[in-house]
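Input record (one chain):
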Amino acid sequence: MHSFLPPHAEHDRPHDSVYEIKTLVLLGLGFGLVGLDRWIVAPLFPHMMRELNLNFQQLGSLIGILSVAWGVWAIVMGPVSDRIGRKRILVSTMVVFSLLSCLSGLAGGFASLMLIRAVMGVAEGAFMPASVAATGEASLPGRRGFNLGLQLSMFSLLGLGFAPILATQLLRVVPSWHWVFMISAVPGLIVAILIARTLKDLPRREPLTAEAGTGRPRWTDLFGSRNVWLAALAILCAMAGIFVVSAMVPTYLVEVRHLDTQKMGFVASAIGFGGFVGSFGVSGASDFIGRRNAAVIAFACAAVLLYLFAHAGPDPLTLFLLLFGVSVFALGLLGLLTGPIATEAAPVGLVASSVGLVSGGGEIFGGGLAPAIAGFIAQHFGLPSTLTFALGGLVAGGVVSLFLVETSPRRRRVLEPTASDQVSGDVI
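The corresponding structure, as predicted from the sequence alone:
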């Protein structure tokens, strides 16, 4: 099922470009700090492991519990955001997950860390669909795809790019890893205040069309869209690949490749910087070559590069470049699947719900269960086996993406000229 806005619907109210820029900057930073608070545990884990007597399986569980909570609450809160607006959800959840990141630094053992990470996942999961929908609503239609790509790329840039560098460098100047968690909470509280002062709940556009009717959209309408549930399955596979890599590679580099802490931080940062580029590159390429083609190619390239990374030697530059490439394609897939594919597949009035379902389903299984399984594999079969597991996820995702229906407006005009007006990439 595809929904579309008639030409006049995008001009029902004057566009405020200044507000668009402010919203993009603040929610981009907010989503980046979500990534920072979520992933800073991975480069700190070798130090936490020694002090708290933790093991590899517990690392996977710490990553996994947050993802499961994120996924459940992204699905639950997407429809709530569609009903009550974005601002209250965004401000409250940002304050909560920032304070919980600080509290992580005070944890004294595995049980308390698990509880903190679970509640953090609730807050971050609620933040995600509301923030994507708010950016889309504030954006000029012609810039909406670019803006969503930029916002989603901040998760990779701050959470997986700068987090390893920030964490490993702060460890050189602060007394312990506990302080790194507490310092990381400050920017989130500042951004929450700025969002509270700046963000507005814009009127929701619900044009009367033959498809939309006059009634309130139902959440179950999402399952009438083939691409919604295929995207949820594909993102599960993508997350099973890149989130296992993100969770295990810092410890893998120290324990298996015998890199020191600073070299490990440098190599691990490739995940974030590659994901930052991929969020633009994969989604941008899909405008021209099509969503399905972009997804299939990205899964294939990520799988090949991960295989090469797993068999590379301990040279930091080589490892960085290969991991950068894996991340370009794998994290680029997350932006493609939760951005253009999820929004283009959404029925009218259910965009946050669609984003929440796609990202939430992927988080629960790909981001949650997969790292936990990888932790078990690492504990019983060795860290290198976790990369084989991640590789399997990427291969499976490539197969799933073959069945996506093409929704890129430019490609559909080429493939189906007579139906080109029936699908729009500007549905928010």
